[in-house]
TrEMBL record:
Residue ranges crossing the lipid bilayer per the database entry: none
Record PROSITE patterns: 2FE2S_FER_1, 2FE2S_FER_2
Pfam families, sorted: Fer2, Fer2_2
SUPFAM superfamilies in the record: 2Fe-2S ferredoxin-like (SSF54292), CO dehydrogenase ISP C-domain like (SSF47741)
GO molecular function, one term: oxidoreductase activity, acting on the aldehyde or oxo group of donors
InterPro entries membership: 2Fe-2S-bd, 2Fe-2S-bd_dom_sf, 2Fe-2S_ferredoxin-like_sf, 2Fe-2S_ferredoxin-type, 2Fe2S_fd_BS, Aldehyde_Oxdr_Iron-Sulfur, Beta-grasp_dom_sf
Claim: Ribonucleoprotein is one of the keywords in the record: no
Protein's name according to its UniProt entry: (2Fe-2S)-binding protein
Domain of life, source organism: Bacteria
Key words of the record: 2Fe-2S, Iron, Iron-sulfur, Metal-binding, Oxidoreductase
Organism of derivation: Prauserella flavalba
Domain 2Fe-2S ferredoxin-type: from-to ranges: 6-82
Pathway(s) per entry: Alkaloid degradation; nicotine degradation
Length: 176
């Protein structure tokens, strides 16, 4: 008989969480259904919309395409986990200031992805539109749009989302 369940430990928004999951369960379903962490949203369930984006060991991932068992021992940071001691993360505040959301459904994934974008650019990772891959990319509008292209907003708040990320990037404020 094959064992179809595994016991895993995740560090979710700073808190260790231990659970037993079916080996086929996605990280999204483990977070939402088993741990009650509702910040990542189930949108397309095919990795196409980005609503389920979190930071996994500091890198952005779509949780609907990630098996929970593959994350044993990993640190999971959701949009809610970016806040520190009840204070909004600079991206949270910028999204509020620039009205970077309308219905808000995609916002947690957008914010996690934006935090990843800031870290990637700071680390010097180029994108498809980076003019000179030998230099640290500048997060202008085109660069932000390219890097955020995996996160969809049905309401069309893209102009405001880009403005929010631009503001935080311009201040040199970090991701998580």
């Amino acid at each position: 008989m094959v064992n179809t369940e595994s016991e895993i430990t995740l560090l979710v928004d700073g808190a260790p969480r231990r659970l037993t999951v079916d080996n086929r369960v996605t990280l999204l379903d483990a977070l939402r259904d088993r741990l009650g962490v509702t910040s990542p949203k189930k949108g397309c369930d095919h990795g196409q919309c980005g609503a389920c984006t979190v930071l996994l060991d500091g890198r952005r991932v779509t949780t609907c395409l990630t098996f929970a068992v593959a994350c044993d021992g990993a640190e999971v940071t959701t949009s809610a986990g970016l806040a520190v001691d009840g204070r909004l993360h600079p991206l949270h505040q910028a999204f509020l200031d620039h009205d970077g959301f309308q219905c808000g459904y995609c916002t947690p994934g957008q914010i996690c992805s934006a935090a990843g974008v800031l870290d990637e650019a700071r680390a010097g990772w180029p994108s498809a539109v980076t003019a000179d891959v030998r230099t640290t990319p500048s997060l202008g509008e085109e660069e932000i749009r390219e890097r955020m292209s995996g996160n969809l907003c049905r309401c069309g708040a893209y102009v405001n989302i880009v403005a929010a990320i631009s503001e935080v990037a311009g201040k040199g404020e970090a991701g998580p």
